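thought: fold this chain, then report.
action: predict
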Amino acid sequence: MMFSQQWAGAVKQYEYYLASGKYDSALYFAEESAAIARGTIGEKNLQYCRLLRNLATANYYLGRYNKAKYFILNEAATRESLKKTSDPDYIDCLDAAALICRKAGSYEEALSQVRKSEKRTLQLFGATSARYAMLLESYAGIYHDDGFSDNDEVYIKLEEKYLRQAAEIYKSLSGQQAEYLAIRNKANLAAWYNNTGNFAQAEALFQDVAAFYLKNEGRSSLSYLSALNNLGVVFYNKGNYKLAEKNFI
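observation:
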């Protein structure tokens, strides 16, 4: 999306600081660009929606989930009022809203956003697409947080259900992106097994994950080291402290 020169510089600075991990500075320029836009084109347009997303993103990375929630839900409402709800940008907004609401502990609101996203995702991408599989993982993430926070066995089982449904879609897809999405899904399922006490299954899946990253990214990759650390957690839970220590990074 092209931005007016009046705030394009601030947006560029926002993007630079966000990529650099300097989130306070990113937020400063997100606020500056939004203020300039409000004084020129107003708030009821798609350009301002993009600036709301920037505000939500910067606050999210700063851990200010309630503020991020305010901005992302404002973006969704604005897109809906403009009747701009049949494109990938609207789906991206809803998916971001679901994640932010989840992090804020607003699980029902998160589910509401995912359900709206599901309708549009099916229309635009179909039920066998990687995009739909990722949406199923959004369901899983919400049920994970809500289920384990209250030890709700129904929600905990729902997490497994949605992870497995996503896995089946990934199996039917080809290409490097699908491989990486599938291995991420496998890691999440391994974590589910670990959290529910099935350490043998967790170990087997984390071994697969570690082997994948070793082959594709090498021993020094953060993904491989993270997989080893996860294996260490499983070994620790099994009482095998020597193997746990060996894998902890």
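thought: worth noting. The mean pLDDT is 95.
final: tokens above.
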